[in-house]
Design brief:
Largest sheet: 5 strands, antiparallel
Number of domains: 1
Strand order of the largest sheet: 1-7-6-5-4
Helix content: under 10%
Distance between the termini: 104 Å
CATH topology: Methylamine Dehydrogenase, Chain H
CATH class: Mainly Beta
């Protein structure tokens, strides 16, 4: 007697279901608990491959571009010395025709505010390729903007007030970038060939900041200095060419990453790195990575964005938005010079213990001086910055306002740059202004609309007579030199 279909059908269904479950179990991965964040969270992971079984593999694509003329260097965040100003290598115009400075070239970009570095006629910037769902470190010609190469790696992220928002650093033939989800990529600056790759989330358990990474890499003395601010490691130094770890700094405070970049400072012959974490400010020995001091005297309640500015021996300005205002801090130590420490060690003597002290010199409320997004610039004994109400302000080191651009002249949270005796200023809507660098009064020289979009917040870069500016979706190169 043959079994009836009523008996066979459930058996077949159960067998098929078992096979499906077995196949799914063999080919799926458990999602770690720290990925289970709401999709409306600014740092939500959409692709479990972003920090999954292995790091993304960078791919190189070559383009038709050729290196441009070497007009000068802007090798990273805030220029050659990280100070936001440069002595120009070309004669710069002090006025423009009614239509503004000549546009040399234009390139569309993925949404964001990531800004360029310039080295030997090449323009480098980190971009997000939405179609390929990948971060892309792009190398463009300074002459015409054509792409020379791009190095990409897959990572899916969602829009959150733009995506990419950092500036690469280039030195000794290597360019380094930090992507939105804290991937650190180092490649040959000429060929784009991979040198090393670090995923700070995987390696240091970094928490990606809201609105994604804003920290720009620092290259200092053949090393890349990073602040992953994971549970165990606050800061680390890696070899520029190999990516090998040279030292790490512990994070006993448990601070997490902010949007701030690391600032170097010299104090009593000792070089240190200053970083604003989520809970305060720390100083780290540049040679050893030792945590020298930390304080919670400066904190920004929502987003710490503007980087520290060194304004004199042991004097550092901190500024922020969200009603944080600004603060001048003095850092002091009773330590002898480093050479005296070394001599003591060589003679078998135990170096004396070093004590660091931080104290507040003055504080100003936001309505007097602060910086929502752009780091102020120190020049000629004064600070120049765009405070939260959008006005350009000149401040002396006593905390006194020397002048402000006035309520009718506001730049929003756009960038600024100083070249020689000129200040370049961009407002939110793509209007570029040049003004005299003056400690007496605000003296504008020319204004023109140079970008068509909005949210023109990317830091500017100047190489010779070429000024690079960007808004949310475009990068443009302008000729700001004198015309024949």
């Amino acid at each position: 007697m043959r079994p009836s279909w009523e008996i066979i059908a459930p058996l077949v269904t159960a067998l098929v279901a078992a096979l499906v479950l077995a196949f799914w179990g063999l080919h799926s991965r458990a999602v770690p608990a720290d990925w289970r964040v709401p999709l409306d969270h600014p740092a939500a992971v959409i692709d479990t491959g972003a920090h999954g079984a292995g790091p993304p593999v960078p791919q190189l694509a070559l383009g038709p571009g050729e290196p441009g003329r070497d007009r000068g260097q802007w090798p990273g965040f805030r220029g050659p010395d990280g100070a936001g100003w440069i002595e120009p290598t070309a004669e710069l115009a002090r006025g423009w025709p009614s239509d503004g400075p000549r546009r040399v070239w234009h390139r569309d970009m993925g949404e964001g505010y990531a800004a360029p570095a310039v080295w030997d006629g090449r323009v480098y910037l980190i971009d997000y390729d939405a179609e390929a769902q990948a971060d892309a470190l792009r190398c463009l010609s300074l002459d015409d903007g054509r792409e020379i190469w791009r190095k990409s790696y897959s990572v899916r992220i969602k829009r959150s007030h733009g995506m990419s928002r950092t500036v690469p650093a280039v030195a000794d033939g290597v360019v380094v970038s930090i992507g939105p989800r804290c991937h650190v990529l180092a490649v040959d600056a000429i060929t784009g060939q991979l040198k090393w790759f670090i995923d700070m989330v995987r390696q240091f358990d970094t928490t990606v900041p809201p609105w994604y990474a804003g920290q720009c890499p620092l290259i200092d003395d053949g090393r890349v200095i990073l602040a992953p601010a994971g549970p165990e490691v606050l800061m680390t130094a890696v070899d520029l060419h190999s990516g090998d770890t040279l030292w790490t700094t512990p994070n006993p405070m448990g601070w997490s990453m902010t949007h701030v970049s690391i600032t170097p400072m010299e104090l009593d012959g000792r070089r240190m790195y200053i970083y604003c974490g989520s809970g305060g400010v720390a100083g780290v020995d540049a040679r050893t990575g030792e945590l020298l001091w930390h304080t919670d005297a400066w904190r920004v309640p929502i987003a710490t964005i503007a980087s520290p500015v060194v304004v004199g021996p042991g004097l550092v300005l901190f500024s922020g938005g969200y009603n944080a205002g600004s603060m001048l801090m003095r850092i002091s130590t009773d330590a002898p010079q480093y050479g005296e420490h070394d001599d003591a060690s060589d003679n078998g003597e135990k170096p004396r213990e070093v004590f660091f002290k931080t104290e507040t010199v003055w504080r100003l409320p936001a309505e007097q001086f602060g910086a929502t997004q752009q780091t102020p610039i120190y020049r000629d004994g004064h600070l120049f910055g765009i405070r939260p109400d959008g006005q350009l302000v000149c401040l002396n080191l006593n905390g006194q306002i020397v002048w402000a651009s006035g309520p009718r002249v506001r730049f929003g949270i756009g960038p600024l740059l100083i070249a020689g005796d000129l200040i370049y200023l961009m407002d939110d809507h793509g209007r570029l202004t040049i003004a005299e660098l003056s400690t007496q009064a605000y003296r504008p020289l020319a204004t023109a609309r140079v970008l068509d979009g909005h949210e023109s917040w990317g830091p500017m870069a100047l190489a010779g007579d070429r000024l690079l500016v960007r808004d949310l979706t475009a990068l443009r190169c302008l000729d700001v030199g004198t015309r024949p």
